[in-house]
Each structure stands twice: as structure tokens, then as C-alpha cells.
């Protein structure tokens, strides 16, 4: 079927990197009749050892979108990932993987250039590919060269201004169509298990970690939040989202299964999924099953009515219990360092012998010698030889000439296409892009017409419905005639009018300018209870436990003012320490007014009631902090490792970033000051205090040292407009700083003896 090919192409854009050979013959879509589908195998070299999708069902009633539900079901997704070093080097797969990565990078760059070209064409500038970069930066005092002969009139092949209204209408139609599809879409995902196994980091203590999901569903509901099917007359969309049995584990010193057969691996992945009735005994869970629910309210016509938000999303999570043991923490540290070593070892994998070290010294010495010689010595010696430079220049010229033919010819011969593919295998991304730039500029300067990008056979077009609403070149000639060029080729005028009416679409529809005060999107997240526990090992009393009660966050957006507001509230939080003398000491406790939140944070961009660009307000109630010596020492010991952590790649990236910061000049600093955002910061912290017992453990008979932090207030000072013209560097530096008023009151340090009666009254 035509639509099976279209949807298969759509899924390939998202799953093509992971699902093998997804096409219309494998994909049994219930587009017209509701057929059910089979599984596809995942096999990504050097990353995925085994994987499987049990069932993927997609039912799309294209001819009755306004009367039936779109149903998507995914049952069983299992994935086992292993380190690349644990898989034997395969030159053919390695080369294929590198070429795939190269082509993806080239496609990404070409897509970015195409978007820039389209923007330039609409704004009246002559842009194709990198022509704007060729003539954009002109040195001072140097006149731009005019090309009267070739640039007097824009090329027809690049004039996209006539297409803009059609594209806008098409996008609006797709938005309307998406609204109708979303109205009755039903999604159900069950039995997900993604697992990583590693016996390379520490062969004596293999590790594994993973995520499992019991069920995730999305259903359409009515005003009472009861699941149902909305009829055509309903304008408001209600969605119920349920999450069940989401968990994560990190196993230390465990058995690995990646050496087994594919069937055995998949059977084990299926048996290890956690549910409310089945808990795998061999897993060391970081957090136990999480269940959550969400209510989604959508009003497609809200921007016209301006009475309710367009989208209002309420999410509630009952309980999140996170637990971490010291072996798990040390395993995480070891894995970070191991990954860093794997990255550094990647260039030498092809020379590595897969033999035991102690009885095969000759092969391992050869591995070390070949790695140094081939990667660090011979490669650079050959790179800068005259023969290699000459060969490289010939390859670049050949590629440039072949690509010029591709730019100007409507039909490319198989010989040229093969030549381009072979040269792209040899050249790197930088040189390919450089040659393409040169080819584009030379074609433009010669006055030849550049063929449209969409005419390329074998090149992917962007957009979800590119193969459905626009022209599509199929890989198979027998399918080419089946793909409809436009919606008019798929439906009769009567069917098209009926579809437009059903989804509320009009070809004259246009966007409205929204008021600045209108709130279009709201998302509310409520975490009823959250706890974080660290302990020395499983079934041992915890060293530290942090409990967070009543954490709520609300994010709202005002598109008319390009404003975003984030509000967060914390009702209570408690920290307890290591059990001593049959007492669990309290380290942190909320002691403020129960009528107000313990902590309240508000951040807003482009606020309504302020001249600043951003506002940040922080308010807090009093907190009691008690020092406990054994708990603090145990926490410090918990996070200590016998060996230091050496992450060379992370360090290199950090140092490069610091060098970039150092290179900023006074001119750049002036620009930052004149264009910087003004922040209105207001902080108000009620008096909290710290209690230090004399013996290091707080009890009724201990002497106390009490530090009262007092009240803390910080408010931004209005600095007015920042003008830096005719200012010295010192004045510029002075204006680069924000200024605040800071007020600290009633700070005091007290010593209280155990026998003093006023101690309890003070506390």
C-alpha cells in the first residue's frame, strides 16, 4: 500500500539507526484494516549486542480520522548494550559504521546550509549553499567584487519566494491534521528493558545496569477524566497518561549474559522486567518501581478565545525512593574512567590481539609497537609526504568536478554517482565540505543553473510527511508511480473538503498576534515524597537519608511576550544520619511556619511587573541543622576512593573552554555589557541555626555551641542603561559587574550548657 510506504519512511527517520531493514513489507500497519505487526531486530555494531521488538502495531484510519482513534502499540522492547572493546574488531563493520557516521554528518551540514539558503532567498539575498559565506565577510577598505553578468538576475532555480505561501499553508494544514490525530490517539507501551553489561572495566567484578518499564499508556478522556472516544463535535482534548513500574538497577560483581546465544539473551532480558507482582532477586535497584499519572488538557482554539491555556499539563508522582550503596558508587566511578580509556583506545582496536596476556607476550608487544608506529609515526610521515599531498589534491579535484556535475545535471549517470561515493569513502568530512563549497561557488560564478535540491535521487528530504505531501523519489522504480505527489492525488475534492471540515482547517487560516499577558502553556509537576538514601552495603543501616516532602514545580509560558516563568515550592525536608545508641540523629529539620512553604523559588523572563529582563526570587523558612560527627565522617569515607579519578577527555574539554573565555577582548566585553540581560534578584532567608554538640552527638545532656545565621536579604540595585561609548577599560570593567544591596541581621554565637533551663526554650 502507498501509505504503508509513507509510514515506514516516517518510522525509518526515527528508528532507522536502530531497527534493521524496516520497510513496508515488514511493517504490517493497520492503515485501512487494522492488521498487527511483527518484530524487527536491532543490531548496531560495537554498541548493541542483541535486541528485539516483539510487536509494533499502528492503526491509522486515514479516511476517518475524525471518527476513529489512532492506536499505536509497542509490546516488548529488549536491548543489550556492551562495550565496543568486548566485541572482536571487524574491519568491514567498522568501515561501514564510520561511513554511516560520515554520511549523517554530511547530511546534517547540508540540511543546515539548505535552511540558511531558504532564509536568504526569502529575505531577498542571493544564497545557495555557502555562497553567503564566500561574500559575507569583507575586510575593511576592500570593495566587494561585482558580478554584473552573472548576478544581475536571480536564478530561477533558487527563487523560492513563490513557494512560501504554499509552504505556510501546508504547515498550517499539518498542524490542524495533527490536532485531529492527537484528539483520539491512544498509545500503549509495555515491557521495556534496556541493559548494559561490562566485564572490561573490571574483569574480576563485572557490572551491569539498566532500566525497565512495565507500562506507559496514553488515553483520551472526557471532562470527568474517564477514558473514552471523543466525537467530532468536541473541541477540548483531555488526555490521561499513566506510568507503571519504572525502575533502574546497578549490579556489581554480577554474571554477564552477552556471551550466550541471542535467544538466551532475550529470554533473560524478558525475565528481568520488574512489576508489582514480580521483583527479580538478583538486581540491586537504584530506585524501586515508580508509578505516576498525568492529566493533559489541550484546547486547539485557545489562542482565538484567550480564555484558557492552550495546553495545561498536571503530573503527579507519589513516591521516588533512590538508594545507593558504596560498591555501586565505586563501580560508577570505575566505569567513568573506563569509558575515558575506551575513547583513547579506539584508534588502536584494529591491532589488538584477542589472546591471553601471559602466554602471548610476542603478540601483545607487536600490538604496542604497531599502535605507536601506525597511528602516531607512519600516519603523520605519510600525510606530509609530497606524493601523498599530490594524491590528496588529485582526489579533491576529482571530487569537485564530479560534484559540479551533480549540481548542474538533472540526471546523474551511475558512473559519476559511483565515483562520488568512492571518493567520499576516502576523503574526510572537512575536505568533502570544502570541495563542495568550491564546486558550488565555481558553478555560480560560471553562470550555470543549479538544479533544485529536491531533484536529487537517493537524497533524503526533510519533514515527517515529505514523502506524502510532496514529491518523493523511491529507491525502487516499481514503487515510484505509487507515491502521491500531493494530497489532491490521494483524495477527491469532496473527500478533501470533508477532511478539512472535520479537522477545522481552512486554507485562509493565519496566525494571530497573542496578547503579552496571555498564558498559553502550563505544566505542573508534584512530587509527593522523595527520598535519597546512601548506605555502606545492602541490608546495612543507612549512613544518610534525605527526605523531601511536597515538592511542586510549575512552568508557564506567555508566547506573546516570549516569557517563561518557573515556580518551585518545597514544603518540608529532613535529613537523618547514622544510627547511634539506638537513636537515629536528626541532621536537618524544618522548623518554620507550617502555613508557608519551606523554600520558594520564582524565576521569570520578560516579567510583566518589572523593567528587568529576568527576575529571580528566593524565600526560605528557618531550618535547624545539627552536626553529627560519626555521620559526617561516614559520608566523607563513603565518597572516598582508593584510586584517583583520571578523566583526560573531560579535562581537555574543560581546559579548551577556559582558553576560549580568556580570549575575550575588551570589545567583546563591551558588546556583552550593552546586550546583557538585566537580572532582578531578591533573596530573603529567615534565620536558621547550626547546633554543634560538644561530644559530636546531640543528646539532652550535651553542651552545645549554637550559631544563629540571622536573617539574610539581598536585592539588586538598578544600574540604569549601560552605555559604554567613550569609556575606558576600567569603566567598562566596572559596569560589567552587577550591584546588590546585602543586609544581614541578628547573627549570634551562643554556648549553652546542658544544665541550663533556658536551652529547651531557645530551641
UniProtKB/TrEMBL annotation:
Keyword Glycosyltransferase set for record: no
PANTHER family found in the cross-reference section: INTERMEMBRANE LIPID TRANSFER PROTEIN VPS13C (PTHR16166:SF125), VACUOLAR PROTEIN SORTING-ASSOCIATED PROTEIN VPS13 (PTHR16166)
Biased composition (Basic and acidic residues): 156-167
Organism (species): Equus asinus asinus
GO terms for biological process, alphabetical: mitochondrion organization; protein retention in Golgi apparatus; protein targeting to vacuole
Record-annotated Chorein N-terminal domain positions: 2-755
Matching InterPro entries: VPS13, VPS13_N
Compositional bias annotation for Basic residues: 141-155
Keywords: Transport
Protein name: Vacuolar protein sorting 13 homolog C
Residue ranges of the region described as Disordered: 141-167
